[in-house]
Amino acid sequence: MGNIVKFDQINRNEKKETGYPSEAAYLCVDHNLDMFNFIKSILPYFDDAAKEMCSIASLKFEKFTILEEDLDDFLERVDNMLDDDIECELALCYTFISRSGTTYRLTVHAIPEDENLRLVSDLIKMDTNHIVSVYCPDECVWKTDAEVIQNNEMLKRFKKLSDSHSPEADIMEMLLTIYPEITDDDYRKLKSKSNLIFKLYNATNRFMTPDVIEVPNKKNDPSGVNIDRFILCLRPDDPFRHGFAVTQKDQKLILNQYLEPVDIFITEDDIHPEDQFGEDFYTVTGPYIMEVDRTSDMDIVKHCLRSLANRYTKEDVYTLPLSFYASLESTNLENIGRRIFKRNERDISETEKKCAELTRKRIQKYLRKF
């Protein structure tokens, strides 16, 4: 389970420049007030997340309590975050012991994401025989450790790759962040399905980053991880560069024009589109995507991406490829298409010219959604 909670910037108390020995006391008081205000503002969100999990698991939230050691751990994490300005994960654990002796531990994690905190809850229980079970809210069932061992295997695999500084760890980290319930079986199937993307990322990880493109759930399939409902892709790592992504179909690498609403909605005030249009912003508009070329030759794609993405820029640049050898580029998406840039000495093909014209029309149509 996971929710995104947005918090206004904490109003820190201005520190008193007294010039007296009591200044140290003022600093201590200010820090404690910061902690008090932050905890007071965030606790209702933790309680709401815990109540939601209890409701799904048919447990009464009112029977849970916070043990002293768990409260101390929570306060220490908050103190470290405010004192050192470190983006650390906050976690608050609620405990309930039933009459039969079964111990329930419900933990709400607040994971920093940009300026937001993503709340994720997990619930476990241990009976008097010390058998531990994990609650799976998507299926509304309890599973023993043996049944969820694949998730542990996934974390072990990630740690091993991370310790070896393998680029593949970036892909795993991204997947675990978006789909924390993904299993080792899911991952192995995805890696087999996207084997060329994994190889390509090994060669381009200095300027490309892994991501997923969601596939609409037209059949109303049950929630949870389904590798057929998202496509692994590589996008520019530079946050100022927009307009293309590489995907895989069978044993072909596909070059796509690709834009998300957040790529379009760029303002001087850096207002996030969800803040202005609401949480439905992404589902209403959706991404812009159009295939322009495909090949099984890895070298062609690597050379293309080096040309498109491995360039430093100080401002937002839209690069919409027409093929592996030509593209449109502009700092203003409304003006895209006035000039075709080619990456070799050959003439621009008729196919690329037609693609440029189609791109101009489709981009204008997409922009009208905003």
Quick description:
With 370 residues, the protein is an alpha+beta fold. Helices cover 38% and strands 26% of the residues. The model is unreliable at 9-16, 267-271 and 276-282 (pLDDT under 50).
How does this model look, in words?
The two termini are 31 Å apart. A hairpin with a 5-residue loop joins β4 (116-126) and β5 (132-136). The chain is an alpha+beta fold. The strands form three sheets. Strands 1, 2, 3, 4, 5 and 6 form a six-stranded antiparallel sheet that branches. The model is unreliable at 9-16, 267-271 and 276-282 (pLDDT under 50). It folds into two domains: 2-137, no CATH class; 194-367, no CATH class. α3 (149-163) runs antiparallel to α4 (168-178) and α6 (195-204) crosses α10 (298-309). It has helices spanning 23-56, 68-84, 149-163, 168-178, 184-193, 195-204, 261-264, 273-277, 281-285, 298-309, 350-367; strands at residues 2-6, 90-97, 103-113, 116-126, 132-136, 141-144, 208-214, 230-236, 241-249, 252-259, 288-295, 317-321, 326-330, 340-342.
Largest sheet: 6 strands, antiparallel
Name the poorly predicted regions. 9-16, 267-271, 276-282
Number of strands: 14
Structural class computed from helices and strand pairing:
alpha+beta
The percent of residues in helical segments reads 25-40%
Termini Cα gap: 31 Å
SSE succession: EHHEEEEEHHHHEEEEHHHEHEEEH
Mean pLDDT: 82
Number of helices: 11
The Cα radius of gyration reads: 25 Å
